[in-house]
Amino acid sequence: MENSTGHTTGDSDGGRDGDSDGGRDDSGSRTAARPENTTETATDIPALALAPDEPTPHEPTPDKKSPHKQTPRSRTPSSRTLRRTRRARRTFLALVLVLLLPLLAAEAALRVNYTGDPAEGTRTRGQDAIWLGHAWVDGRKKDADIEALAARLRGTGIRDLYVHAGPLEHDGTLPASAYRDAGRLIPAVHRALPGVRVQAWLGDVLATESPDGLRLERAATRAAVVESTRAVLAAGFEGAHFDLEPLHSGDRDYLGLLDDLRALTHARGAVLSVAAHQIDPLPAFHSVWGTLTGHPKWWSQAYFGEVARRVDQIAVMSYDTMQPSQSLYGGYVAQQTSLALEATPPTTDLLMGLPFFHENRFGHWDHAETVPAAVRGVRLGLSRTDADRVRFGVALYVDFAATEADWTAYREGWARTAPPE
User: Fold this and answer.
1) Cβ contact 335:343 at 8 Å
2) Per-residue pLDDT, 119
3) Alpha-carbon distances of 374 from 86, 205, 378, 396, rounded to whole Å
4) Distance from C-alpha of 99 to C-alpha of 196, rounded to nearest angstrom
């Protein structure tokens, strides 16, 4: 995913996920880990060697050996050139300060945001979820694997499984062969984990920042996505979970698609859920970042709210944050939790993503984005904003990349359950 784009890591599948599928990963996209697209600009202004008050040289004198040959003039910069250079330096420094000071202030605020103690009771409400890789529906996972998964999840508060059943084709279609083992998986999960829902995780790369990808502006493509959803629900999935990236803030075609999908899922008694981009940490930050890099990354809080009102569940991809330390990352998650709670109606399930994967690349540092820091950040944000919110949980990304330490941190910090025997 986000890898922003979100989701980034794949298991080894030889099928349709990030394992070995010709570049498609378990995130529902067709590319593997996608670092944030950034543009670095360096401005170097050379220092001038001459002082502004250096006197003007005398006129050149004729060469004694050649009365017609004269010595070259000294190339001293004019006072006008020096003034322009000084102005350019001052302008450059002013721009650096204008850009850096708000960021430094924001980082300091995040560190403060990570202080204090979470309120009592800010633990699982039985609304948690986990993203599962494609191996669960392509025949690689067997009954013994399902029993082991059930033993790990039992009693944790995980209610929804987002099982990778895509990715969608760029035209919105989805071959049934992509989720051929769903008919065995879903009943087996119901037997082993009564009350747990199995949703089809669908997605694709959008053609918002490159010429290739799914184009939501095309009515035929949106109609095909709805038909693909109808097919996975007919196959037994109890909901559809969408991860479409990179999705720019304000995209009206996406909102229209959600309206159509909601009508379908509600008519079938199914759940509609989405993976959501992070919310602007500073006002209009997605616009500034998009102008500088071509990749807006964040959503406005208002747009987040528009999406949240159209779905049953919204899961924030609160990882790949570019934060360099656990305290800054945890403070960032606390801020994101508060912003999301403010924008999400109480009738919609809000889930905050936990990083159950391990990478080191631009935008994600494994030593900083840890499960303990994320859990503490979630609890702090929940405590300060809406400690009694019932329809709230965390979502674990992703099963095939998780370590025992990740599971322990989730259980001890959020679920308060003992490890499986």
Assistant:
1) no
2) 97
3) 46, 26, 6, 11
4) 47
Q: Identify the sign of the CA torsion 377, 349, 261, 158.
A: positive
Convert the pLDDT of each residue in 315-360 to its tens digit. 999 999 999 999 999 999 999 999 999 999 999 999 999 999 999 9
Structure tokens at 387: 């400690």
Is the alpha carbon torsion for 375, 378, 381, 387 positive or negative?
A: negative
Distance CA 213, CA 220 (A): 14
b/e for 320-348, b at 16 or more Cβ within 10 A? Answer: bbbbebbbbbbbbbbbbbbbbbebbeeeb
Tokens of 142: 């067997």
- pLDDT (tens digit per residue) in 166-194: 999 999 999 999 999 999 999 999 999 99
Could you give the 3-state DSSP secondary structure of residue 68?
coil
| Cβ count near 207 (within 10 Å) | 17
Helix (H) or strand (E) holding 162: strand 158-164
Angle among Cα 28, 204, 201 to the nearest 5 degrees reads 40
Helix axes 219-234 and 252-267, enclosed angle (nearest 10): 30
pTM strictly above 0.70: yes
Question: pLDDT per residue over 351-398, tens digit each?
Answer: 999 999 999 999 999 999 999 999 999 999 999 999 999 999 999 999
The candidate with the shortest Cα–Cα distance to 142, out of 188, 180, 178, 179, is 188
Which residues neighbour 266 within 8 Å (Cβ) at sequence distance 6 or greater?
272
